[in-house]
Amino acid sequence: MILSVEKTHITHITHIDDGFVFLDFHIQRKTRGDGRRVVLTIPAKQALASVMHKIKKLTGQGTTSLSLAEVLRKVTPVLRGWAAYFRHGASKKTFSYLGWYAWWRLILWIRCKHPHLTWKQLRRRYYGADRIAEDRMVLYNPAKTRVERYRYRGAQISTPWNIDEVDPEKARFRRTGHDDMAFVGQVSEHLT
Fold this sequence. Notes:
Blueprint: E1 20-22, E2 25-31, E3 37-43, H1 45-58, H2 68-86, H3 92-113, H4 119-126, E4 133-134, E5 137-138, H5 180-191
């Protein structure tokens, strides 16, 4: 295995307050109002720009020949997948913004498709107070995605090296019955 010099960088979070991007998450250390330092993992701006570009392409002027249900079938999986990937970070504000952006892109798409209808007619036909829908297809709102930050605590994962320190009530995995040291040896042989 050869590491890329451009992509590989070893750093410590305390030395960089600007943060860094890893797997489309922007990881940054911040100081809260009470003086505590916390590490935030938020979606990177490049990842947000990428999904916004996809939505813009799917709701562009060239797609007005499609029905609203067809456009929703294309846009909803993009939003749902993106939200599912980023739900393990501090993503609520980003999800709200993305939901707002997708909502207005579809409203403008509907307006381009039906230029002679009034706003009142468009609202009655295609969207209500909280959703855009047609033929049982509803626009997915990423702001309603449940964010699960810090679900997995590394200190509570049972391994052969910390079995005496892990509280069995809070442990994510139970200790396995197989010979763990032999398994580690087998994996090490494959990696070298």
